[in-house]
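Reopening this ticket.

The earlier resolution said the output was attached, but the attachment link was broken on my side. Pasting everything inline this time so it's all in one place.
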Amino acid sequence: MIGLEGLTKRYPGQSEPAVDALDLAVPEGEIVVLVGPSGCGKTTTMKMINRIIEPTSGIIRLQGEDVTRTPPDDLRRRIGYVIQQVGLFPHMTIAENVAVVPKLLKWKNDRTRSRVDEMLELVGMDPGTYRDRHPKELSGGQRQRIGVARALAADPPVMLMDEPFGAVDPIAREKLQNEFLRLQEDIKKTIVFVTHDIDEAIKMGDRIVVLGDRSVIKQYDTPERILSDPAYDFVAEFIGAGASLKRLGLARVRDFALADWPVSSIADGREAALKALAAAGAESVLLLDEQRRPVRWAARSDLSRSGASLERLGTPVTVVQPQATLAGALDSMVSSRVGAVVVVDGRGAYTGTVDMGVIMQAAETMRDAARQNATAQLDPEQGAELERELDGGEAEGPGGSTGGAPDTTVPRR
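Inline output:
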């Protein structure tokens, strides 16, 4: 979808180019994340794709077409652009902001209005509520959603995203990341995404480009391969410690069997909740409303309090959706008194929980997958030696047993 050939940027007065003869192919329908240390040229590279910054030399191809000499305004109307500061026009309504590019393309008014409402619904903002508001009336996370809606309004084949979630608080950031990944499953855009955060790169990217100085590519690979087999010490150092924990950022909650937990409907009363606790031998029961939406965690001591309504007992529930990562679920779980986080579907209904058992099983699956990927690239004798090292000397030689690791890999989105 996007091809960069010998792309170079030299600034006057600088002895070294900011970007030096970069070659990069971005596959259609994927998110490719540019990541690297500050000053490596990742934002410069991205801005050259839509020629906000003009390259000194090289070729930019979009859908096979050399757009290096295309009028820049025409090119930018084919590319959605989302930045950290959002860049909404403060004097315009939300609808007017989303409609900017369709109006530039001279869409008819009815088509534009319909598209605006469609985009607002797509990013989870009710058109009737938000269409006529102004940016100052929205939270940071809401403004970021509008930025995404505006970038998608003219249905561009390509999107560029420069630190798009960096200006919001961590909770909103996690939610926006998850919502965008859910959205990408439907829209399948080709996206170049810039971040300084390796954890965000691992979570968001189908592929990651690790850049060194002058945007020299140190490794261009899937997140799994970059974590399990960094090509250079530079890449390993950039990833940093805790690669095993970072692998949890690759795994989606929906890809693993969830844990069962005692649940009881508030409508069934206190005795039903106590029976559910006794039957499971657990310390807490999850109370659900009539639509099976989680309401509260209640311990036996909570249920023994006379006179208190079930809706007010216990502690609040933290929920995640199936597209959340196990890393995000683990983070939420650590702060839970119960030691579990509740998974809900698109309607908010209970589907299961993630607890330490789920996390440990996922870690074992990913460890086995990484082992198989590593040994598959070696000859039998080297593979057996690697197995012995990984198993602490328990693996047998060629042809022997290695403990029966399952033939599985962690599914991507």
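Reporter confirms the inline version is readable. The radius of gyration is 25 Å. The first strand starts at residue 2 and ends at 9.
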